[in-house]
Amino acid sequence: MVVYELSDDEVDRLFRALADRTRRDIVRRTLLGEVTVSQLAGSYDMSFAAVQKHIAVLEGAGLITKHPHGRERRVRGNPETIRLAQNLLDQFEQVWRARMDRLDDLLSDDQLSNETP
Amino acid sequence: MVVYELSDDEVDRLFRALADRTRRDIVRRTLLGEVTVSQLAGSYDMSFAAVQKHIAVLEGAGLITKHPHGRERRVRGNPETIRLAQNLLDQFEQVWRARMDRLDDLLSDDQLSNETP
DNA sequence: TTAATATACAACCTAATGGTTGTATATGAA
DNA sequence: TTCATATACAACCATTAGGTTGTATATTAA
User: What CATH number does the domain containing B42 carry?
Assistant: First the structure.
């Protein structure tokens, strides 16, 4: 499976998009099923335009897509991009795990040198 | 294993902290092994104070900790918090997967109603 | 055709972010 | 003790983010 290499800018946008509770909620709702912009706007205690901006940020990060249906736009969550974010975090974990492995190796070496003086 | 419930503010801070390439690099380096504030500051093309601020943001998000050693502060990455972020993304994935499961169930029901007319 | 609805988008405001420089303080080395 | 190093932190500045209101444009319903 080929996984896209995200640029620093894209990664910035991805995590930035997730760093807002309203946007995280929109992602959850749109992963659960398609909703229109109006339905989303009606769910939050802020103006229609404010919700529109959040939707634009999420779209820019690739976390959602909009699909025209007559005069309305249906918003759909994109699980692929969530996966990309998970991969990024996995890479951090691997860095740490690699370090732990090196420490384990050092310990084994010590044991060896004790066993063969 | 008990996993801490993060507040919305904490989640905001966590993803916000990850939404900057310099900070992500600091996290990587400090997961690889302890480094001092000076060492970090020397690695980026910006002022000491700017790097200090990035370190403060990461500390506020729980992604790193500082440990005094004489006059220097050693910075250490915190894999626990990476794990918390992973859990959050997993929750998004589960929302989507739950939806897929429901769709599968619907399909099965259709098949059944075809089989028993 | 006219009215209502769904969306888009510009202009504006305030607060937060990411950077700067300058100054203060603690610790270690000579 | 004196000097150099490591860190902290305040004050400032430009840009971005998150909100607002107001206006324009499609599309559907009457």
Answer: 1.10.10.10
